[in-house]
């Protein structure tokens, strides 16, 4: 398990890291948003402890940015205990909120509670009508028949499904799928990946019910309920 601590107070950051350290947990530490963004790109982060007031920006803004493509659990840390800040944090997709000063053991208990809640909501396997998608084992099928998906198609599918009902722009998809190479990727690469994925998933690729094109904006997964 990978936990990211984004806190510019180095002493507090270190204290949180020591409190959460155990054999099955890898702690990543960032002291600003730039470092946090890099870590999230490189590692499969399972939970973020995110300070709101950081040297290079707002944790609230970063949470809003993350929620466009990720459901990673986020616990806010802040010296602000105003009701409006708490409401804003939850409204942007935060999972919990703790104000400074706080007990490190209380924080640890809150972290464990959020992780348990997240685990109970995620079986690792998603059923969408005839589609069975297991992103952890990288196993996919339609009508019980195995689907062979490339790594790019798997990344694209996961982004679309985990953001079901939300529009993802072409820029967001290209940036997340090709990461650091995004600026050098031919824009046509996304169109090709969408076409290939539709050919494997849709009954009628020319009239897709899963991957919808939102003209002028991007794409959206529009069909089915996760179970």
From TrEMBL:
Keyword Kinase set for record: no
PANTHER family according to UniProt: REGULATOR OF RPOS, TWO-COMPONENT RESPONSE REGULATOR ORR33
Superkingdom per UniProt: Bacteria
UniProt cross-references to Gene3D superfamilies, sorted A to Z: 3.40.50.2300, 6.10.250.690, Winged helix-like DNA-binding domain superfamily/Winged helix DNA-binding domain
One Pfam family this sequence matches: Trans_reg_C
UniProt key word GTP-binding: no
InterPro entries linked: CheY-like_superfamily (IPR011006), OmpR/PhoB-type_DNA-bd (IPR001867), Sig_transdc_resp-reg_receiver (IPR001789), WalR-like (IPR039420), WH-like_DNA-bd_sf (IPR036388)
SUPFAM superfamilies: CheY-like
Modified residues (4-aspartylphosphate): 51
Entry protein name: Sensory transduction protein regX3
DNA-binding region of this protein: 123-223
Response regulatory domain sequence ranges: 2-115
Keywords: DNA-binding, Phosphoprotein, Transcription, Transcription regulation, Two-component regulatory system
Residue ranges of every copy of the OmpR/PhoB-type domain listed in the record: 123-223
